[in-house]
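FORM 12-B: Structure-to-Sequence Request
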């Protein structure tokens, strides 16, 4: 298991926290959620963001891909209208983020990958790997980012005592369980 202090120190020293984490403290951020204090609210988004940044660093992602995962982390649940199982909130979250001006509405590779990640994060992996309705050239990149994001989101299942590490897609994700537990204790 990776030491959470080392992870945070690395994210800080490499500039990940300064670049992305401040967005989660914007005064307007809570207003994007139907219920900011719910299990899919602000604190969940902050923890998923830190988990995504850790996975981005540990997997050597470039700045563009790290930025995509950061945006997905912050906004992936803002389209929710309840805390139950929902296969539509990813699509609704992406649309809401565009409507709020949080995501550019321009059709380009990066925005399409972001749309793919956000829309499909709440779907079964087999359904999510259908890329036909997206304008994405680098399909391998899109699937990799989706799986990394699903692991980030999945790691925060520690908050509901429902994390099954067998569902995590990457071995390095399994090494972040103690970090996810630390974030749950510290981000309140």
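FORM 12-B RESPONSE
SEQUENCE OUT:
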């Amino acid at each position: 298991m990776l030491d959470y202090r080392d992870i945070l120190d690395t994210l800080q020293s490499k500039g990940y926290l300064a670049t992305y984490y401040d967005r989660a403290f914007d005064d307007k951020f809570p207003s994007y959620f139907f219920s900011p204090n719910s299990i899919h609210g602000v604190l969940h988004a902050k923890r998923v963001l830190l988990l995504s940044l850790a996975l981005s660093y540990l997997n050597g992602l470039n700045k563009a891909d790290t930025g995509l995962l950061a945006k997905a982390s912050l906004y992936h649940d803002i389209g929710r209208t309840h805390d139950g199982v929902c296969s539509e909130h990813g699509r609704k979250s992406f649309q809401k983020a565009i409507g709020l001006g949080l995501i550019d509405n321009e059709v380009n590779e990066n925005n399409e990958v972001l749309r793919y990640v956000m829309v499909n994060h709440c779907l079964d992996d087999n359904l999510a790997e259908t890329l036909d309705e997206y304008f994405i050239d680098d399909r391998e990149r899109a699937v990799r980012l989706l799986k990394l994001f699903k692991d980030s989101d999945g790691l925060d299942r520690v908050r509901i005592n429902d994390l099954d590490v067998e569902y995590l897609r990457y071995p390095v994700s399994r090494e972040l369980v103690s970090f996810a537990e630390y974030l749950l204790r510290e981000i309140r």
